[in-house]
Amino acid sequence: MKYIDHHAHMVSRTTDDYQHMALTGCVAVTEPAFWAGWDRSTADGMEDYFRQLTEFEPRRAAQFGVRHYCWLAMNPKESDNRELSREVLKRIPAFLDRPTVLGIGEIGMNRITRNEVATFDEQVELAHAHRQLILIHTPHLEDKLKGTRVSIEVLRRYRSLDPGRVLIDHAEEHTLELILEHGYWAGLTLYPQTKVSPQRAVDMIEQYGPDRICVAGACDWGPSDPIAVPRFVMEMRRRRLPEDLIERVVFENPARFLRQSGKFHVDLEPVAAGT
Amino acid sequence: MTIQSPLDAPALADEYFIENRNRLLELAAFLDRLDRADPTRGSRDFRLRALADALAILAGPGPNYVSQIQELLSDPTTEPIAALDRKSALGAYGGKK
Prior knowledge:
The complex is a heterodimer.
Chain A: E1 3-5, H1 15-23, E2 26-32, H2 43-62, E3 67-72, H3 82-91, E4 101-108, H4 114-129, E5 133-137, H5 144-155, E6 166-168, H6 176-181, E7 185-189, H7 198-208, E8 213-216, H8 228-238, H9 243-258
Parallel strand pairs in A: 1-2, 2-3, 3-4, 4-5, 5-6, 6-7, 7-8
Helix pairs in contact in A: 2-3, 3-4, 4-5, 7-8
Chain B: H1 9-37, H2 41-44, H3 46-59, H4 65-73
Helix pairs in contact in B: 3-4
């Protein structure tokens, strides 16, 4: 079954991972700008990273027929650094017209500091001013609920911001309803330890239905799985859930959200079951 | 909109019992390991106290075990903190509820 992984940090992965993703049906990935595991010291370094995301990764993915798109932002884990954040934000608009840049992301909070909230607010404002889609990271573990609540509180200050153009990612059982009831899209990220297992993701699809929910692997430099979405597909089949429902969650939903950028081009024709 | 699982309760038990039996034993082994290291540690570490509280939820009648445990482990506040204290989350909330 073909699928779209809307959250994959491919700069941290090998070319073999692109091949495995293609072999398991991946037709497109979208890569949010993120924390490299260490703090970068200059805006120049961040700009080089944006060039990697917009120039090098699309070519690497294309070798296997996978379309590569990206999101640009000051990532949550470095966003407490206000001085660096301001410099990085000044440089983002120059990249927004590039053909594979879908919007601003992943933005959000890590420990929910005052500085992080201020940077998040500025990035929402930037996205809103440039009519960009928004991809939001919600914090891990005990900070997720608070980070989701504070993110939504900031978003709701932008009264003309269409919630249907915002995806709030890393949702779990205690945040999913909050995200959906405000009209946002929700992402379930399948991560071995700190986020959601395929089994729990399927539980949430059964409980809330498939509307405005996408799933992704969020593979990165930590313990993670570039073919997590096919494992979710296998779990859906293990529950005997229908193929058209599976296809909706792993292909049609992300395509529908991402096409709002005007740049995301992947065929929306249905795929026959079992292909 | 909810989706009725095609699997009924006996079918779910047939399909998932063994792997969840294994998870239960892994958790029991973790607690035994902690006891061997220091039998009093569980009462001093806020994460392990949270784990004990979560086990009490599991022993209860439900429903919504996962949401109850997620909320138990979460920071319930909404006020941003003044300054960055660390980069990583710890897995349980150590402050006052």
